[in-house]
């Protein structure tokens, strides 16, 4: 019996990278897991099939969480297929990089929609089904604690907005026994930010450990916050960044 046996988790953007690692880790801990995707259906189904091959339960849901109807539908489908909802992991994100003068209004709206609006909408829909012991965990960024140079204005703004959102959720939902937290990754080797990418050496140089982390490092932190060990942690962020913000 795992620590999360009997629990149900919804992981947004769960088909690849950090989201896929989180979905697998929560399933290994005993949770049934629903994961959303927008485009990469094949990868999301591969994650679900792996969970099911290990004896777990999984659901795959196509949803654009920036739209209220999709956020509500994803939550409702999770409850319909898996029976309940205890853990929401807001993982879906949009990487933005470039000079301030070149940021278009469309890019601004897209980043805020994916990184902030979708988290709000998913949480709003999820808490209708959560009770005591519910967990809302959002994947933030090391930019919440340190902006290393130019061209990160949009990314830093969007991810820092999660701090205020999470603190507000913690205060409002605390009386119901629901926690709200953030996991702030440093440089993590994923499709979006590969360890052999053109800025990888620079990113490594900013960490105390001098290396990239792995998606499983973030998944382990999420599993801790989702499990019994995280029951008294709320309204705060856990940095898993190799010392990036040290």
TrEMBL record:
Enzyme superclass (EC):
oxidoreductase
EC number(s) given by UniProt: 1.1.1.-
Keywords, comma-separated and alphabetical: Oxidoreductase
Q: Which SMART domains match?
A: PKS_KR (SM00822)
Q: Name one GO molecular function term.
A: oxidoreductase activity
User: Which intervals hold domain Ketoreductase?
Assistant: 7-191
> What domain of life does the UniProt record list for this protein's source?
Bacteria
Report if keyword Oxidoreductase is assigned: yes
Q: Which family does it belong to?
A: Belongs to the short-chain dehydrogenases/reductases (SDR) family.
The name of this protein is SDR family NAD(P)-dependent oxidoreductase
Q: Which organism is it from?
A: Actinomadura gamaensis
């Amino acid at each position: 019996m795992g620590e999360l046996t009997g629990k149900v988790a919804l992981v947004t953007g769960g088909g690849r990278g950090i989201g896929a690692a989180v979905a697998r880790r929560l399933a290994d801990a005993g949770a049934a897991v629903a994961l959303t995707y927008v485009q990469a259906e094949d990868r999301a189904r591969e994650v679900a099939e792996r969970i099911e091959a290990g004896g777990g339960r999984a659901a795959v849901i196509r949803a654009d969480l920036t739209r209220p109807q999709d956020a509500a539908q994803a939550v409702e489908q999770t409850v319909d297929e898996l029976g309940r909802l205890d853990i929401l992991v807001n993982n879906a994100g949009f990487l933005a990089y470039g000079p301030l003068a070149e940021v278009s209004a469309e890019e601004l709206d897209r980043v805020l929609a994916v990184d902030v609006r979708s988290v709000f909408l998913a949480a709003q829909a999820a808490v209708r089904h959560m009770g005591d012991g519910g967990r809302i965990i959002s994947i933030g960024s090391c930019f919440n604690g340190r902006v290393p140079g130019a061209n990160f204005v949009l990314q830093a703004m969007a991810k820092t907005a999660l701090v205020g959102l999470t603190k507000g959720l913690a205060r409002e939902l605390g009386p119901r026994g629901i926690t709200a937290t953030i996991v702030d990754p440093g440089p993590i080797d994923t499709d979006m930010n590969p360890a052999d990418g053109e800025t990888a050496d620079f990113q490594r140089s900013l960490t105390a450990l001098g290396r990239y982390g792995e998606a499983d490092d973030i998944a382990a932190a999420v599993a801790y916050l989702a499990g019994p060990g995280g029951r008294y942690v709320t309204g705060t962020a856990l940095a898993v960044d190799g010392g990036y913000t040290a």
